[in-house]
Amino acid sequence: MTHAALSPSTWGRLRHFVGSPLGAVLGGMLFAAWAAFANRDGGTFVSLRSCGGQLFASAALTFIDARLMDRVFRLGGGGSAGAAIAAVVSLVFTYALIVGVHLALHTPHILLTLLPGMPPTLGFSLMYALLLLREQGATRTVSMIKDNECIAEI
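Above: the chain sequence. Below: its structure as tokens.
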């Protein structure tokens, strides 16, 4: 049995956890800890202010990005094109907002704060887009099997 044989509900549960408030807060806590560390030379207040801003922005963005990607994926017609458009829109939205938050907070080291988070942020956007695509494919496979005729395995 390949990974494609997972039920649609398994892909859906994974996708929903990643975009859930709990998943968003857990991810935000990791980014917030780094923001505090990266800005520690500004003193405790600056470090904690950057930490708080990053926690709020990361958690909110993860939660909002999941919904944004769901919508863009559907508006893009689903499939590979919808997944690609959803990932790009998510990344543009994320960095526009997060840079704005840190500019407003006068974070002294914005690039240092954001650089280590770029690979996981890119990874989240790509993974979530692939989960959308995979869940769509798994749903199609199950519907084909329900008709007692397996045309293709995704």
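The chain has six helices and no strands.
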